[in-house]
Amino acid sequence: MITAIVPGSFDPPTKGHLDVVERCAALFDEVVIGVVHNPSKTPLFTAAERVDLLEACAVQWPNVRAVSFEGLLVDFAKEIGASTVVKGLRAVTDFEFEIQMSQMNRYLSGDIVTLFVATKPEYGYLSSSLVKEVARLGGSIEGLVPDPVAAALKERLK
Ligand code: PNS
Questions:
Q1: Whose CA is nearest to atom 14 of ligand 1?
Q2: CA of 73 to the centre of ligand 1 (A)
Q3: What is the pLDDT of residues 72-124, one digit of tens each?
Q4: For ligand 1, atom 1: residue with the closest CA
Q5: Which of 93, 96, 68, 98 lies closest to 80, judged by CA?
Q6: Rounded to whole angstroms, how far apart are CA atoms 95 and 103?
Q7: Is residue 114 classed as helix, strand or coil in its secondary structure?
Q8: Residue 131 has what pLDDT?
Q9: Residues 46-78: pLDDT tens digits?
Q10: How many angstroms separate the first and last alpha carbons of the chain?
Q11: What pLDDT shows up at residue 134?
Q12: Which stretches does DSSP call E strand in 47-141?
């Protein structure tokens, strides 16, 4: 039984995130979307809200669940019995920081393997920060986020 973690901030989840999750759902027995709760940050959505949004967006994949975690990713991975971390790469600019994080995680725990999934080209420019900025400024985010997220953004920013 192989459990993979797809970790991230997901503030809010985008279609790019869900594309990575969908591919993991087909590749692994169990997929845990790890929603980071960082008490020193002020996200638009609380960790509990992000978990609920991800659960709503992933309802079609029975082997996927969302869980929030605080502290080190490697500790969370051990806690849930996962040895594989999956991250999406949009472009070469993502690579530098992602490889740094994966090597730090490997230093912290030699048991953890990080795999990278290239995002769909149509989501290459997509980020949670840009989605929030466009939504705040009244632009259309249709096609960029799943419906439950679009509704939650509309409600939060009104
Ligand atoms: O969506 P993001 O912001 O790119 O996700 C980053 C995340 C949550 C994967 C990363 O910040 C993380 O793993 N945080 C947990 C804290 C930790 O383990 N830090 C040291 C490892 S580099």
A1: 73
A2: 7
A3: 999 999 999 999 999 999 998 899 999 999 999 999 999 999 999 999 999 99
A4: 8
A5: 68
A6: 12
A7: strand
A8: 98
A9: 999 999 999 999 999 999 999 999 999 999 999
A10: 44
A11: 97
A12: 64-69, 84-89, 113-118
For position 7, what pLDDT does the model report?
98
Q: How far is the CA of 133 from the centre of ligand 1 (A)?
A: 22
Q: Alpha-carbon distance 8 to 35, whole Å?
A: 6
Q: Which residues line ligand 1 (CB under 6 A)?
A: 7-9, 36, 72-73, 101, 104-105
Which atom number of ligand 1 is nearest to the Cα of residue 73?
18
Q: What are the C-alpha distances in Å from 107 to residues 74, 87, 103, 134? A: 10, 18, 6, 38
- How far, CA to CA in Å, does 142 sit from each of 16, 103, 153, 154? 13, 36, 11, 11
Q: What is the DSSP letter of 14?
A: -
Ligand 1: atom nearest CA of 74 is 18
Token readout for 108 is 């912290």
Taking the centre of ligand 1 as the mean of its atom positions, its distance from the CA of residue 98, in whole angstroms, is: 9
Compute the average pLDDT of residues 1-15. Answer: 98
Is omega for the bond preceding 12 within 30 degrees of 0, making it cis? yes
- Give the chain's domains with CATH numbers: 3-156 (3.40.50.620)
